[in-house]
Prior knowledge:
Order of helices and strands: EEEHEHEHEH
Strand order of the largest sheet: 1-2-3-4-5-6
Helix content: 40-55%
Distance between the termini: 8 Å
Mean pLDDT: 89
Number of strands: 6
Low-confidence stretches: none
Radius of gyration: 14 Å
Largest sheet: 6 strands, mixed
Structural class: alpha/beta
Amino acid sequence: MRGLATEEHxxxxxxxxxxxxxxxxxxxxxxxxxxxxxxxxxxAYQQRVLEQHPSGMWVFHNWxxxxxxxxxxxxxxxxxTNAHMDSIFRVHLAFRSRLIAMxxxxxxxGMKRIQVMSSVEELEAELAEAVRVxxx
Length: 136
């Protein structure tokens, strides 16, 4: 089964890339500030990944270049995640921003499936292994 096409959503210098490199795998990359329109695109993309693999998905967020997020972004993400918690096997996340770190700390209270990666390289290695294992 082919994955979804990669999408890129930009607002000025801020960039949000969405990819589906393997069955049930979502990979994102954010640089700059995450905007609400970009997060709406992410939520729609996640939904399509789940439609292709209804048993669940593995998520890999490379947010190392993310600096902040616009008002409403966290709330939208939390609402979608809470509604689909049973469909998310694990979220792997790399980031550097202290603001993102605070949000992740709060998210980890309710979602034990978050795995914070020590580096982008570690995240990429985990993603490569997930794609290898889940490729037909």
